[in-house]
Amino acid sequence: MTDNIVQLQTSTRGDYFGGCPTCRRTNGCVNDGPYHWFVCDTHKAKWNVGSNLFSSWREQTEEERFKNRDKLAKYREVEPVNDWNEGEVNSDNRPGQAPPF
Ligand SMILES: [Zn+2]
User: Fold this and answer.
1) Which residues are in the CB-under-5-Å shell of ion ligand 1?
2) Phi, psi (degrees; rounded to nearest 5) at 36
3) 3 part of a folded domain
4) Which of 11-20, 26-35, 48-57, 60-69 comes out lowest in average pLDDT?
5) Nearest-CA neighbor of 46 among 62, 61, 63, 31?
6) In a domain, 6, yes or no
7) Paired strand residues for 19
8) Residue 20, Cβ density class (10 Å: 0-12 exposed, 13-18 middle, ≥19 buried)
9) pLDDT digits (tens, 9 = 90+) for 26-51
10) C-alpha 37 chain-centroid distance
């Protein structure tokens, strides 16, 4: 009975793996095979955090992998921001824009 429930991932503030450069948040990790991408669904942003760090990808079905790859293909790769590393944030890709808060 739970097959049709869509798991909505809530966005959280980016932490160890960084956050979206626009909103500093992330909707979590999407695996493309052994490669781990963190994403922001709001801004269709993705950033790679490495490969084979988590074993969860091994349990994914072919369908899940296909969906993930399809999703990632629509997102653009960005440089994530890390709050504790704020002085080194590269803001080259949003010149002149004030933070949204
Ligand atoms: Zn965002």
Assistant:
1) 20, 22-23, 40, 42-43
2) -105, 125
3) no
4) 11-20
5) 31
6) no
7) 81
8) buried
9) 999 999 989 999 999 999 999 999 99
10) 5
Q: Which residue has the higher pLDDT, 100 or 59?
A: 59
Domain hosting 19: range is 15-84
Ligand 1 center–CA 1 separation, angstroms: 33
Residue 38: strand, helix, or coil: strand
Distance from residue 64's CA to the centre of ligand 1 (Å): 23
Q: Is residue 92 part of a domain?
A: no
Mean residue pLDDT of the chain comes to 80
Residue 82, CA atoms < 13 Å, CB-side half-sphere: 8
> How many Cα neighbours within 13 Å face the side chain of 96?
0
* Token digits of residue 76: 């653009």
End-to-end CA distance of the chain: 41
Centre of ligand 1 from the C-alpha of residue 34, in Å: 24
Q: Please tell me the distance from the alpha carbon of residue 22 to that of residue 53, in angstroms, as a whole number.
A: 26
